[in-house]
Each structure stands twice: as structure tokens, then as C-alpha cells.
Design a protein that fits this description.
435 residues, alpha/beta, Urease, subunit C, domain 1, TIM Barrel, six-stranded mixed beta sheet, four-stranded mixed beta sheet, 14 helices, 30% helix
């Protein structure tokens, strides 16, 4: 991406996600920093971006993506994942460690950091909790943190051993890092492939019980209370799980959580309606309509802190198999804002500012990362978007290396038009934003 160190953004409305305040103003960027904010700005020999009718916020951050590099570059690479993130409006992501080899040692952490240099999207590696993600022995958390790891997780697998999770929380607390939990008790999930319930029974598909998620969240909430370590619940998916987190927060336990758009936008009925389309297979699975409504309520009342995507690319040949044989996971970066606008903002569950807070401030604060500011002198890190454009998501909008999403043909509300970060302007292609 060619650099754009100097840029004049005109006609936009600045949005402060903390206060919700808006202000119509232009931005003059010089050498990648915000040099001036004001009305009727002008500059000679500077590229101009007309943001009329659009909002400008600090750059969005997705704290849960899978970029597959190293070892699974046929699915996604750091470069192609960053491309998908930029199209979706994100200027930063945290990438999960279930790669090959896993992000389980400092050298792999530093490999990710180096590979991301020069990209317009910040890529922060998450190290494993256990060595090799095998769940037996704690990884070298301190060494990985020194190399750039922002958190620790065995995502894709739970930390099944309670004693190991306790020690990890105690040690991560000394590093001021959270443990990001894939919350699932494997002894309660005997190789299920979709939500355990009426639909799975009707279809004859082995189910994944909600209890497997809920029991592990309850365990980790108790461990967080005991150790003082910060547990972050990834991709929360059940009504009772939301209630467990709500009660834990009320007791002052250091616990946070995230929700993914597919868990509020779809239900397990989509597996049947799609004819076992493997693009409806993810982990945690699509749950019931009651669970989806509970997630929306958790977002509304603040129980759920952040919106994340769990962007999980898989190659076509991996997904084009029988439902039982297919891997879990779907794309998320490119359609996140459109589903947020359609299902949360347009319906009055969240205001635009509240949604942007969950995409900018909350994830970075959970990961102890600085939050970009729209202020003179600050490094320019911003997203230009609206919350009103109605459009249809099509295959041409996919910028990931993989294509596994059930949302092709789905209506969306709200568009990310451009990002600016590291002195680079990345715009959505005109042909890719047509309704």
C-alpha cells in the first residue's frame, strides 16, 4: 500500500466513542499525524478525501481473528487478513495462536510482529497459555510478553486443566495481561458438530451442549475471583453464559467478554434451512433464538464488553465436504459492521457511539493497548464510515484469501469507507461498495 503521509479529510463528522459527542470538522494529516482539526481547512498539493455524510472515529480493533500464518497460508496470511480487516474498517487486530506451529514461543511471536511491519493494520499476536497448545504445561508467558504478545489463549481449545488455568491467571496477573478463554468443558462435549437441541435432534447431528460452555465460564469466573487474574470470555454464545458473566461482574470479579455477529445474526435453524451448508458450522455453534436475543441484551446492558469477529478462514476444499467432516469457522471481518448496523443500531439496541466503543475502546482496554485519539498531534489512526447505507453483501466484497461465509446475499446496514493508519489510506474499492 503506497504511503499517504499527508491527507486532508473534509466534510466528515468526528465521533468520540467515550462521550458520544460529535463534531463536524475537517482533519489535516501531516507525516501521518493529525496536524490540525477545524472548519474549512485547506492545504496545497495534498490528497483530499471527501467524508461528507460520513463519520470519523478512532480506528476499529478486532480482538479475535485467525490469520493462519505460520503454517496454514493456504487459508489466510497476515497480509491477506490485514486486507480483509482494512476493508471491514479495522485498523488493528489480535491474532489467535492456533497456527502451525502455534504462537507458543517468543520467536513465533516476533515472527508475527515482523511480518506485520509496514501494513496499514496493526497485528498483535496472542501467545498460548500452554506449551504447544497441548494443555499440559504452562508456556513461557513472560518471554512471549517481552516479544510482543498482548494476551494468552489456547483458542481453538480450552484450558481443560483447572490447576493450569489457575497458575496461568496468577502469572498473567503479574504481567498485567488477560487470559482469553475458549470456554468449553470437553468432558461435556462428545465430538458435537452443532448446538445440542431440537434442531440437532431433528437432523440427527451430534450436538454441542450449552452446558459445556457455561460450566467452564463458571469455573473460570471462580478462578478469576480467587487469583485476581483477568479472564476474558471469548465468543460468548448462550443465554446462561451471559447471565453467569453478568453475575460475576456484579460481584466485582475481573471478567470481560466479547460477542460475534454470527451469534446474534443466525441461529441453529440456519443449518437446516441451508441444507447443511458447512458455512453455518462454527465453534461455539449457532445457538437458539433465545440465546441470540440474550446476546443482544448483554450488549445493550454492558455485560458484553466488546464486539469481535472470530474471523476464521478455511480453504474451499476444506469446507466443501459433508457437514460432519467440515472444520469449524467462518469469515467475519468484512461483514461485522454491516451486521452491527442492521441488527444492533437500526433496532435501537445500541447507539452508534455505543457500538463504536465496543469496537475501539473496549477491546484495546481489555488488551492494555493505547486507544487512538482524534486530537491534534496524535498519530492518525481512524476509520471513516456510516451507519445508514443499505447494501447487500456479495462475494466480491470478500477480501480474505478464503471464502467461507454464509452471509453472501445478506442485507447489511452501514459501511466502512476507508481507514487511515501508519500514514496509509486504504479505501473500499468503488465497485465493492455498490448496493
Amino acid at each position: 500500500m503506497p504511503p499517504t503521509p499527508d491527507l486532508l479529510i473534509t466534510g466528515g463528522t468526528l465521533l468520540d466513542p467515550r462521550s458520544g459527542d460529535t463534531r463536524r470538522a475537517g482533519l489535516l494529516i501531516r507525516d501521518g499525524r493529525i496536524a490540525e482539526i477545524g472548519d474549512d481547512l485547506s492545504a496545497d498539493n495534498v490528497e483530499t478525501f471527501d467524508a461528507s455524510g460520513k463519520l470519523i472515529s478512532p480506528g476499529w480493533f478486532d480482538m479475535h481473528v485467525h490469520f493462519r500464518e505460520p503454517g496454514q497460508e493456504h487459508k489466510e496470511t497476515i497480509e491477506t487478513g490485514a486486507r480483509a480487516a482494512a476493508f471491514g474498517g479495522f485498523t488493528g487486530v489480535a491474532c489467535m495462536p492456533n497456527t502451525e506451529p502455534p504462537i507458543a514461543t517468543r520467536d513465533v511471536v516476533e515472527f508475527i510482529v515482523k511480518r506485520a511491519q509496514g501494513l496499514p493494520v496493526d497485528v498483535h499476536p496472542v501467545g498460548t497459555v500452554s506449551k504447544g497448545r497441548k494443555g499440559n504445561e504452562m508456556a513461557e508467558l513472560g518471554d512471549m510478553a517481552a516479544g510482543g504478545a498482548v494476551a494468552f489463549s489456547d483458542d481453538g481449545s480450552p484450558v481443560q486443566h483447572g490447576g493450569l488455568m489457575r497458575r496461568a491467571l496468577e502469572y498473567a496477573r503479574t504481567l498485567d495481561k488477560p487470559i482469553l478463554g475458549h470456554e468449553e468443558d470437553l468432558t461435556l462435549n462428545d465430538h458435537g458438530h452443532m448446538h445440542e437441541g431440537a434442531v440437532a435432534t431433528r437432523l440427527g447431528v451430534p450436538g454441542i451442549p450449552a452446558l459445556a460452555e457455561e460450566a467452564m465460564i463458571a469455573r473460570d469466573a471462580l478462578l478469576a475471583e480467587f487469583t485476581g487474574g483477568h479472564v476474558h470470555v471469548q465468543h460468548i454464545s448462550t443465554a446462561k453464559a451471559v447471565e453467569i458473566v453478568r453475575q460475576a461482574k456484579a460481584q466485582g470479579i475481573p471478567i470481560t467478554t466479547e460477542a460475534c455477529p454470527h451469534h446474534w445474526a443466525l441461529t441453529d435453524e440456519a443449518v437446516d434451512a441451508s441444507g447443511f451448508d458447512t458455512h453455518t458450522k462454527m465453534h461455539p455453534p449457532l445457538r437458539t433464538a433465545a440465546d441470540a436475543e440474550a446476546i443482544k441484551e448483554g450488549l445493550r446492558d454492558g455485560t458484553i464488553d466488546a464486539i469481535a469477529t472470530d474471523h476464521a478462514p478455511h480453504a474451499s476444499f476444506e469446507k466443501e465436504v459433508e457437514f460432519i467432516a467440515a472444520p469449524f469457522g467462518i469469515l467475519g471481518l468484512e461483514m461485522c459492521w454491516g451486521l452491527t448496523g442492521r441488527d444492533l443500531i437500526q433496532t435501537g439496541i445500541l447507539t452508534v457511539a455505543e457500538a463504536i466503543f465496543k469496537l475501539t475502546v473496549a477491546p484495546r482496554e481489555i488488551l492494555r493497548l493505547p486507544v487512538p485519539e482524534l486530537a491534534e498531534g496524535a498519530e492518525a489512526n481512524l476509520t471513516i464510515f456510516d451507519a445508514e447505507t443499505e447494501w447487500t453483501f456479495e462475494a466480491k466484497h470478500i477480501h480474505s484469501k478464503s471464502k467461507n461465509t454464509p452471509f453472501v446475499g445478506a442485507p447489511m446496514v452501514g459501511r466502512a469507507w476507508a481507514i487511515y493508519n501508519h500514514a496509509q489510506l486504504v479505501q473500499a474499492e468503488p465497485e465493492a461498495v455498490e448496493a
